[in-house]
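not sure who needs this but someone in the group chat was asking about magnesium-protoporphyrin IX monomethyl ester (oxidative) cyclase from Fraxinus pennsylvanica so here u go. i didnt clean anything up, its just raw.
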Amino acid sequence: MAAEMALVRPISKFSSTIPRIGNSRLPCTRFFTIKMSSTVQSQAATLSKKKKAGKKEINESLLTPRFYTTDFDEMEQLFNTEINKNLNMSEFEALLQEFKTDFNQTHFVRNKEFKEAADKMEDPLRQIFVEFLERSCTAEFSGFLLYKELGRRLKKTNPVVAEIFSLMSRDEARHAGFLNKGLSDFNLALDLGFLTKDENRHGDFFSALMKAQPQFLNDWKAKLWARFFCLSVYVTMYLNDCQRTAFYEGIGLNTKEFDMHVIIETNRTTARIFPAVPDVENPEFKRKLDRMVEINEQLLAVGQSQDIPLVKNLKRIPLISALASEILAAYLMKPIESGSVDFAEFEPQLVY
């Protein structure tokens, strides 16, 4: 996942800085806004006015952006075999065959237990779970839109890679459709406008792509950027999820234990291609994350207080400083030197 998002990710609308690695620029990704809505379904909601009355916009924030785009012209150059001599087309062709096989074609199955579980769920857990489904569904739909467009634009430049992107869009659409049907159990649905009917080897595909760009991976700058990217993903996830502990506890999970499991597995997979990754299995790493959660909770409490804006800002200064200090300390921890390995040498065990 991290390898995938290294190339296709949102850049905050509050920042226009594009990281540079070596002498080359990563494919530019920019965040843009598309309004989505969740619509209360009813038999009488067939008229447009009634539909509009039942719609609620999904909020976006710096930490939870919805849609992604990229620099399509640069992607065309990246996959042009005449320009990029490092592209290993035999590897991409092998990946294409795996995508065509579609191992997860029958994986997403809904049964009566879905509906029964939704009927039994009550507020506030019900609302938290609905928000989780909304965020997940729009994220998958975003991937569908982006990969579909890349598949269309790369047909002439690199037909093999274009077909892979098209099949990846198929996977993302299937995920979004499954989640949207899950919302229907709550008498809700995301108004996606249009959607065609998995993540088989998305990470492997982007790993193969990055290996074709060795300047992103083979120097000290690349190591620094790789560690920074991984850490930013892990910290964002941990802080966000710890704000939604009620949801995870409601479905029988310990939020922090679950997040650390995801972070560790993601880090191991990312280490297959990134030249360096944080040592997330060092107990000190989790202690720093927990400290960040404590500071973040204090920041949220300040924001929700009745103090005047000036007092709030003054109270935030030492907390922001402490949070930045913890993040920097985590970044400066001794990393794990890693790098590309053959896919067959490390096959992560996925549990669904």
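also The chain has two domains: 1-216, 219-340. if thats useful
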